[in-house]
Design brief:
Length: about 220
């Protein structure tokens, strides 16, 4: 993939941002973009929430308990977001970047795999089920939306979180799918360090310089 020298602006938020608030913000940014609007990557965490992608079966939420369930417009099925999980949203003009959806998918998966491999964690992508897996357990989920060539949504990487809520769903529509997280394989790797290194790897796999912005 040729290198695009236009930087991607990075927006990082402290604390926990409600899922629906961020969903509406992504939609609004995509609606008001023009040919000169900058590409952005948002990195943040959500409070506990189950989200249903466009292909999700509501029956895959077996027992939500107190955790809200929100219908999303991303690709994929059902997943869980919560504290201790980095969520990366990629708001890119794909035609301008010279990228296909498949190339973007591979870039996102590749960044996670490179990050994990750099710490001795053997990880892989699967052609039949998007995301990243370690020893058969899912560590990162992927779901994108592309409208008129503009992408939003992205990936989530389990880092140092309570994995219990995943037992309340059929993760990605697969009953019994095991899930894991970075902390289980590399206990000394902090959440902040994972976030920093994930952004560095994304810059490499996307072939773009990243430009850090202020907290929003």
């Amino acid at each position: 993939m040729p290198v695009n020298h236009h930087p991607i602006a990075i927006r990082c938020w402290p604390g926990l941002l409600p899922y629906y608030t961020v969903l509406e913000a992504m939609r609004e940014y995509s609606r008001q973009r023009d040919a000169e609007s900058e590409d952005q990557i948002w990195m943040l965490q959500h409070p506990p929430v189950f989200t249903l992608g466009r292909r999700a079966d509501p029956a895959d939420v077996v027992d939500p308990g107190p955790i809200p369930v929100i219908r999303s417009d991303r690709g994929g099925k059902v997943t869980y977001h919560g504290p201790g999980q980095w969520v990366i949203y990629v708001l890119l003009d794909l035609p301008r970047a010279g990228m296909s959806i498949r190339e973007l998918t591979h870039a996102l998966e590749g960044a996670v795999i490179a990050l994990l491999n750099s710490h001795g964690i053997e990880a892989e992508a699967r052609s039949d089920a998007p995301g990243v897996y370690v020893q058969g357990a899912k560590i990162a989920s992927l779901g994108l939306r592309v409208q008129k060539g503009l992408s939003y949504h992205g990936l989530s990487l389990n880092c140092a979180m309570d994995l219990g809520p995943f037992a309340r769903i059929h993760p990605c529509g697969t009953p019994g799918l095991a899930v894991t997280q970075v902390q289980d394989h590399c206990p000394d790797l902090t959440l902040a360090k994972v976030g920093q290194e994930l952004l560095e790897q994304l810059g490499k796999t996307l072939g773009r310089p990243l430009q850090k912005g202020d907290h929003q």
